[in-house]
Design goal:
six-stranded antiparallel β-sheet, 10 strands, Flp pilus assembly protein CpaB, two-stranded antiparallel sheet, alpha+beta, about 290 residues, single chain
């Protein structure tokens, strides 16, 4: 009896095992394919708008050659919009005071912005060299009290006329005016006059005396003029024994030959026909 129960139990277990075998899935559950990563949309911000400003810049009105003293006719100021991060304002001329009467170091093309490194200040040593032409020299004139107004009313680039103060002095009562001596200064006010000897000479430099110096000082300043060798000889010789005076010029432009007002005879004065003044070289010198 017991054996029959065991057999029946084995049969039931066998049936249960078979049932489980036929009812369980034969394949493993399907594996889902890997999902592709999503593309991330990158938003690129627009570049920042440059910060600009309006500036006035000096522009060449025409083609300007080197060694030119700049006047208002040579340039004008143009308002342009510039990037404050890239435009170097220190490089360009932005004010009339930075260009008026300056001298050009190089040629400047028409309608180009004028740069500071292309021009020289009237107060620089470079300026004096740039403005000299062939045969011209710098002639310094010390300013005395009588001419102090020149320092206050004239500027670099203005023109000067040079005069000599003189009068005619007769030797005696019976002497004629044709035989009178020329003296400077004259001791007689009624026949005192001035005569132009050189006209239209340009002021290259003006030096004011130190503000700490006394007004009683004989030297109150200096003006540098541009003169030729011939003009320098005349002025220096007159200065040794006469009064030479400077006045603002009556002309609007400078003259290469400032002696043009003089008669032919006066142009060579005060040269002498004596041998030491001759153009021929002196072979020997004799003492007394």
């Amino acid at each position: 009896m017991k054996n029959n129960k065991l057999i029946i139990l084995y049969i039931i277990m066998l049936l249960i095992g078979l049932a489980l075998l036929f009812t369980s899935p034969s394949d493993s559950p399907p594996v889902e394919p890997p999902t592709q990563p999503r593309e991330v949309e990158v938003i690129v911000a627009p570049p920042p708008k440059p910060v600009t400003e309006m500036v006035n810049v000096a522009v060449a009105k025409t083609d300007i050659s080197s060694n030119t003293i700049l006047k208002a006719k040579d340039y004008y100021f143009k308002t342009i919009e510039v990037n404050i991060d890239t435009f170097d304002k220190a490089k360009y001329v932005l004010d009339a005071g930075e260009i008026e009467n300056y001298a050009t170091k190089n040629n400047i093309q028409k309608e180009s912005l004028i740069q500071k490194n292309l021009i020289a200040s009237p107060y620089s040593e470079e300026y004096r060299t740039l403005t000299l032409k062939k045969g011209e020299f710098i002639f310094p004139v010390e300013i005395a009290k009588a001419d102090i107004y020149l320092l206050k009313n004239l500027h670099i680039g203005d023109l000067i006329d040079i005069y000599v103060l003189y009068g005619l002095e007769k030797q005696g009562v019976e002497a004629s005016i044709d035989n009178a001596n020329v003296v400077s200064p004259s001791r007689n006010f009624s026949n005192t006059t001035i005569k132009p000897i050189i006209a239209g000479k340009k002021i290259l430099y003006i030096e004011n005396a130190d503000t700490n110096s006394s007004y009683d000082s004989q030297r109150l300043g200096r003006i540098d003029l541009v003169l030729t060798n011939e003009e320098i000889k005349l002025v220096r010789t007159l200065m040794t024994n006469s009064i030479v005076m400077l006045y603002p010029s009556t002309f609007n432009e400078s003259f290469d030959k400032g002696l043009f007002l003089l008669a032919d005879k006066e142009k060579t004065w005060p040269e002498s026909k004596q041998q030491i003044f001759n153009r021929k070289p002196i072979s020997r010198l004799r003492g007394n």
